[in-house]
Amino acid sequence: MDVYNTEEEQVEAIKKWWNENGKSIIAGIIIGVTAIFGWRSYENHTAMQAKAASILYEQLLVASRKNDSNNIRSIANNIIADYESSTYAIFSKLMLAKLESESGDLENAEVYLYSVLDNVSRDEFKHITRLRLIRVLIANNKLESAEELLTKVKPNQFTAHYEELRGDIFAKQGNVKGALKAYQKAIANSASNEDAQIILQMKLDDLGRI
User: How many CB atoms lie within 10 A of CB 46?
Assistant: First the structure.
């Protein structure tokens, strides 16, 4: 026997089911359509933000090539303020740190570099930022802070750079033996970089004058 004996019973059953479930189905469709359009709107907004940040960063590079420090600061700060979570903001902070370091404002350079180091996740950015920060700390005679950063480093493709900086710290402290060992380790890890080896050899030669 059929579940429903007549067409009228089937129609009535469908009506009853629709009355019980129709609203939730419509609500689900509305939510789904809204989500689709909302996601597209978000994607469009994100694309526009990325394009705007890219244009500003191009302007920043032009200012950098012209050594226009006023425009560098202005544009970089705009990028950081408006697109803080973007990669362009990271590059902007690194550029500002370089500018401050070259102008002798090592404290401000530290601020920018610490900000990048605390917020960046990619390892290559962390290593580049850490190396620059250690150099700034050494130049600012904050040797303990520089050493502390070095203790957090794991051996990697930047080993030669880290060992060179370790040697710089020891040399500033008058620890000739420690500096000698660090520079030699740096040379051993930079066999493919002739320029780096020349600089390291000069630092080794300078140890004899300490």
Answer: 10
N-terminal to C-terminal alpha carbon distance within the chain = 106
DSSP 154: P
- Residue ranges of the chain with per-residue pLDDT less than 50: 1-5, 39, 42, 45
Round to whole Å and give the CA distance between 72 and 87. Answer: 17
Torsion sign (Cα): 68, 74, 80, 83: negative
DSSP H or E run through 120:
none
The answer to whether the beta carbons of residues 94 and 132 sit under 8 Å apart is: yes
pTM: 0.72
User: Domains of the chain by range and CATH?
Assistant: 8-153 (1.25.40.10)
C-alpha pair distances (Å), 12 with each of 19, 122, 140, 198: 10, 62, 85, 92
